[in-house]
Specification:
Elements (H helix, E strand, L loop, with lengths): L2 E9 L2 E14 L4 E4 L6 E3 L5 H10 L2 H4 L4 H7 L7 H14 L16 H8 L13 H14 L12 H13 L9 E3 L5 E6 H13 L7 H15 L1 H4 L5 H8 L4 E6 L3 E6 L4 E7 L7 H11 L5 H6 L1 H4 L2 E3 L5 E11 L4
Antiparallel strand pairs: 1-2, 1-11, 2-3, 2-9, 4-6, 5-6, 7-8, 8-9, 10-11
């Protein structure tokens, strides 16, 4: 199945903007099941790589030995809103490790959560890296470094043994040569890698197909990470965020994780399918309508789920006083195979 994807941004009845997107849906063997004409687009994995950055902590048995709960694992795979709940959860992980916020290399940024912003504006809370949307991932990396006996100083640098391991793990799960992955620095100060969309989707297909009773430690670890994310969707992102709404609507049957610059990865756990969606201009606002439309086209949502996700499929555009002035509308057009 081949289709073209775009999102139309209407103000009134006029089309004011258009976002063009690329998509690849694959199974765990890497077979392309559906996609756009440029499905092989190479782009940065960004925060959608977090389940695989968490993988060694679980696969090597450290998460179990340290007694981490599924909720704690979910925040380690999260791009959270900096809410009081998220901050407390990450604080608890650091306390288990005997560390404070100063150990986090991600830096501070203003939280998306309104309650936390109020706390900070009133001066009731210090501005620490806990509020960074990637603080949970960094806490998980500190746990891995300590468990492996590696120094925590410089844990975020490409030459650190942990970052070398994570590069190898991402390449293995996504079935791509590590040498072929161009690298950069993510917004949270960690290495980030560029992969073709089908390779990203293949990693998520393995996440989707993983089972807790599998003989391989890696597969069991992937199953636990998928379970943790699906069971704690508000932990993984936050109320109103696209990935959270997709997981809530499907009861965790679709495990979703967004990434900066208009990236969304989906694991369809009942099919063993992975889906990668990328907005070419980096606009995150195009992801919700596109993700729902693609899942609908793949037949992966039932009527009740589609009804629940109606606000995400056609998001409202509002002006500064809250009045509805337009909508985002997904367009999925089938094209002939070459």
């Amino acid at each position: 199945m081949r289709f073209e994807l775009e999102v139309l941004v209407r103000r009134g009845s006029a089309v004011e903007s258009r976002h063009h997107l690329q998509c690849a849906a694959v199974d765990a063997s890497g077979t392309l099941l559906a996609g756009t004409p440029n499905a092989g687009l190479v782009t940065m994995f960004r925060s959608s790589a977090k389940p695989f950055q968490l993988l060694p902590l679980v696969e090597r048995g450290h998460a179990e030995r340290l007694g981490f709960t599924d909720e704690q694992l979910a925040v380690m795979a999260a791009s959270h809103t900096g809410s009081r709940y998220h901050v407390q959860l990450v604080t608890g992980i650091l306390e288990q490790l005997g560390l404070g916020p100063g150990a986090l290399a991600c830096g501070y940024h203003d939280p998306e959560d309104a309650g936390s912003r109020d706390d900070l504006l009133r001066g009731g809370a210090p501005r620490t890296a806990l509020y960074n949307n990637c603080s949970g991932k960094h806490a998980g990396m500190l746990a891995l470094a300590l468990a492996e006996g590696w120094p925590i100083e410089g844990y975020h640098l490409p030459a650190h043994p942990m970052q070398q391991l994570l590069r190898q793990v991402i390449a293995e799960v996504c079935e791509i040569s590590p040498a072929s992955m161009e690298s950069g620095t993510d917004g949270c100060n960690l290495p980030v890698f560029a992969l073709p969309l089908p390779s990203m989707a293949r990693g998520y297909a393995r996440l989707a197909a993983a089972r807790a009773d599998a003989p391989e430690a890696r597969t069991r670890a992937l199953a636990r990470i998928a379970r943790a994310m699906g069971a704690h969707p508000r932990t993984v992102e936050g109320d109103g965020r696209t990935a959270t709404q997709l997981m809530l609507a499907t009861g965790g049957r679709v495990v979703a994780k967004g990434g900066a610059e208009g990236l969304m990865l989906l694991a369809l756990t009942d099919r063993g399918t992975g889906v990668a969606v990328k907005c070419e201009d980096g606009a995150g606002r195009a992801l919700a309508p596109t993700a729902v439309a693609v899942l609908e086209r793949l037949g992966a949502l039932d009527g009740a789920e589609l009804a629940t996700l109606a606000p995400q499929r056609r998001p409202v555009v509002r002006n500064v006083i809250g009045a509805e002035v337009g909508r985002l509308e997904p367009s999925v057009r089938e094209v002939a195979l070459a």
